[in-house]
Write a structure and sequence with these properties.
alpha/beta; 5-stranded parallel beta sheet; 42% helix; disordered N terminus
Length: 372
Amino acid sequence: MNPFGRRTFLNYLGGSTAAFGMGLSQGAALAQTGSATSKNRSKRIDVDVHIGSKEYIDYLSSLQKSSAPQPGLKEAPAQPMQPQGQSIALNIGEIENIDQRLKDMDQNGIDMQVLSWRNIGCDEFNSADGIKWAKKINNTLAELVNKYPNRFAAFCSIPWQEPAAAVTELERAAKDLGLKGIKIDSTIKGEYLDAKKYRPIFQKAEELGMPIFLHPDEMPADMIKPYSAYPGLAGAGWGYAAEASLHAIRLIYSGLFDECPRLKLMLGHMGEGLPYWLWRLDGKGGSGGIKKKPSEYIKENFYINTSGMFFHPALVCAYMAMGADHVLFATDWPAESNKLAVEFMETAPIISASDKEKIYHLNAEKLLNLGT
C-alpha cells in the first residue's frame, strides 16, 4: 500500500511545495516553511557519515607508494570530490578534527552521527594487517562513542578477507564494544559477497541483529573498462551506484535472504536506484530459485538512506516504493553538506510529519537499537 493517497498527492502538486515549481532554491523554500533549527524540530540521526584518522591515511599512502603493493588494493582517494554546498576542507572528516565535526553538526541541527570508517577498508589489506586494523578501528570508534554517547554511534569494520576472523571480530564489536552494525565498501578484492565463504559472516550478523551497510566503491577491474572511456563515469556520479545496486541484487539472487530472513541491509544514496526498478525486477528479472519476488526482499530486508541524493523526485519515489519505515535520513558528510541535507528534508514534499519523524530518527533507533 502506498504511504499516501491521491488527495495527498494532489495537495502536494498544488500546495505548499509550489515554491519549487516557481524555481525557488531549497534554501529559499526553507525560509518559507520555517527554520531548520527551530526549537520544535525533529531529532536528527545521520546514518551515513564517515571518519578516518591521520594514522590510517598515512598507512594507505604508504601502501600506494610501496614497491610491492598489496594485491587487489583499491586506490585510496586522498582528496575526494568537492562537496556540493560546502567549501570546508574534507580533512575535517579525520578523527583528529572532532571539534570541527561537532561544531558543524550543531550549526546544522544534526543530533547524532552513526559513524563508518572511511574507505578503502581494512578488508582490502593482507590478512594479518586486515585483522590488526579492524581491531584498531573498532576500538577507536568505541572510544569515541563512549566519550560522546549522545552524539555518536558506529558501524564496525571487519576483516572479510578472513571470514573466521571476521566472525570473531564482529562478535567482539557487537558484544564488547557496543557497535551497531557493519560497514563494507562493496567487493572484497574484486569478489562479491554472495560467495559462499562469506555466509558465516552474514549468519552471525543476523544472529547478533547487526545490519550491514553496503557502501559503494570502485567496481572490480574486469568490469571497469566500459566506464573508463569518460572521466567521472566510473565514480560517484554513476558507476558507484551501478556497482552497489548490482551487488545488492546478486545477494538477493544468491538466496542469502532466504537463508537469513531476519538479516537487514542498508543502501545509501536513496537506494542506489533500486526503488525505481522494483516493478521491472519482478516482471523481467526471473526468480533465480529464490522464494519471493525481488521487490519483496528489497522492501522487507533493505533500508535505504538519503545520503548524497538531495533530489525530491527521487525521495518521493523511494518513499512510495519502500514505505516510510524503511527510509533513513543521511548526509554523506564530509563528502556532502549537512546544511544541504537538512534543507532537503525540511522542504520535502508529500511526507507527513509523523513519517518525517520516522525518517529523521525513529527508524534508525529501531534498526540500530540506539534507544531514545
